Every structure is written in C-alpha cells, then in structure tokens.
Amino acid sequence: MTIFGIFFPLGLFYLAFANILMCMLTLFAFSNHCKRALSIVTKGIGVWKDILVVVSYFASIYNIVALIFTGNGLMYIFGDVNATRDLIILLVFEHALLGLKSFIRGVVEDIPEWV
Hints:
Largest sheet: none
Shape: flat
Low-confidence stretches: none
Number of strands: 0
C-alpha cells in the first residue's frame, strides 16, 4: 500500500478495515465451524512404536557416519586417518552405540510400575 498511497490515500483505511474483517471472519469460522476430532481410547500407539524404533536406529547410524566423515575430531584422537581406519572406527562406534541403545532398552521398563 505504501507504493500506491499517493494515488489512493484512503486505501490505508480500506486495507485496515479489510484486515480486521478477515481476522473476525477467521475467528468466527474457527470457533463455530471447526471441531476437534473425537478421541479414541487405545492401549498404545500401535505400529507407530515400530516405526519410531526403526527411524531411531537409522538416525543413530546416520549421526555416527556424519560424525566420522565430516568431523575433524578423529585427526586429534587417532592421528592421520585413512579410509580403512575410518571404516573400522565407524563400525566400532556404530556397534557400540547400537549396543548401548539395546542395553538401555532392556534395562528401562516400557511401562513404569506406578502407572
């Protein structure tokens, strides 16, 4: 509106009125015509649990790969690093992380006793 303010000075008031009207109509539509979906009681999250477990495994592997191949920290720890040593370090860290993940999953209960 600032560009055409010279040609139509009352346009600012028109736009303010149109904006307020649009906000009021949107508020009316959301409060009167949109309803929340009915909730259904279930025992768990179903197949989404398996999907989240698979995604977390892929994310763990991807994070280790990104850390090994893009980070410069390995040069400080292991000295001069070549491709074979990178792959060995990747496999060791990846197996250690997945082992830790499996250990924690076995130790921590799915459903606490107080629930």
